[in-house]
Specification:
By secondary structure, the protein is α+β, with helices and mostly antiparallel strands. It is elongated and about 70 Å long. The longest helix has 24 residues, at 24-47. The N and C termini lie far apart (68 Å). A 5-stranded mixed β-barrel has the order 1-2-3-5-4. 24% of the residues lie in helices and 39% in strands.
């Protein structure tokens, strides 16, 4: 039977010529549109990563130990040597020391956002000693 033969089998009363045929280009455009929409949603969600209060990290240090978190605050003190350093970030809930292995620390008084790996070193009675190993910095 030829492709253009209308006398062939009919599916639900619609001949082969009457069925909508989508071109390969239309399929590709539809897939690309879905992919771009999905990628855009992921980008927006990643840009809106939540900031964890420093007090929450220190109060629940075992919960956050080894996890990547994001904090924001003001740099209280900083010290650096040969591209490495440490600085203390304070928000309205507490202070946390940030260790920077790949960049000099920011200046004292700077408002900063930091993403890094939280490490609870130890807890003694109600005090926790913990650090954040810096992965990236941003301006909040």
């Amino acid at each position: 039977m030829s492709r253009f033969d209308l006398s062939g089998p009919v599916d639900n009363g619609i001949s082969h010529l009457e069925r909508p045929i989508m071109s390969n280009t239309a399929h590709r455009v539809r897939r690309l549109t879905r992919f771009v929409s999905f990628a855009g949603a992921l980008f927006v969600l990643s840009a809106c990563a939540s900031v964890t209060p420093i007090g929450e990290l220190l109060d629940n240090s075992s919960r956050y130990d080894g996890k990547t978190v994001r904090i924001e605050g003001v740099v209280q003190e900083s010290a650096g040597l040969l591209g490495r350093g440490a600085y203390e970030v304070k928000d309205n809930t507490g202070k946390l020391t940030v260790i920077s292995e790949g960049a000099t620390p920011p200046r004292t008084g700077a408002r900063i956002g930091v993403k890094g790996k939280f490490q609870a070193l130890f807890t003694l009675l109600s005090k926790s000693l913990a650090v954040l190993m810096e992965q990236s910095r941003s301006q909040p």
